[in-house]
Amino acid sequence: MKVSDILRVKGNTLYTAQPDEPLSRALDLMSDKDIGSLVVMEHGDLVGMLTFREVIKTLVKNGGSIGKTLVRSAMDDHPLTCTMETDMDEVRRMMLDRHARYMPVMDHKMLMGVISFYDVARAVVDSQNFENKMLKAYIRDWPEGEGDAAKA
Hints:
The protein is an alpha+beta fold and 152 residues long. It has helices spanning 3-10, 23-33, 52-61, 71-74, 88-98, 117-140, 146-151; strands at 16-17, 37-42, 45-51, 102-107, 110-116. It has one domain: CBS-domain (Roll). The strands form two sheets. The chain has a three-stranded mixed β-sheet with strand order 1-2-3. It has a two-stranded antiparallel ribbon with strand order 4-5. The model has no long low-confidence stretch (mean pLDDT 88).
């Protein structure tokens, strides 16, 4: 399974922020859309990722206040990325190694989407459910006599 398979099911709605906008505006968008991350774009390029992890770190650093903090000050400016062709096993490994919950999907410099750890887990469960159904159907339709040869 590839990242493109997840994005095909998930859809392609993207929410972004700009690095020089107030963090409070980005948080309003995250709250309004009930999302855990924003891709930070500047002049059409990916420059960072803002997740609740970065927001919490900023809150702790500022004594519980956002104040006039800009997105640029809070964002991860070296986000982990993948491509549409990245295999799901590789994505899982990358996310686990970096403790990343969100990953932008890039096609060269073009942002194609964002996948979350939840998206990856859901894809794995759906794949396993499908495989289980196929195995059960195969066992149920086992031809008469083939099992008898194995017993002899």
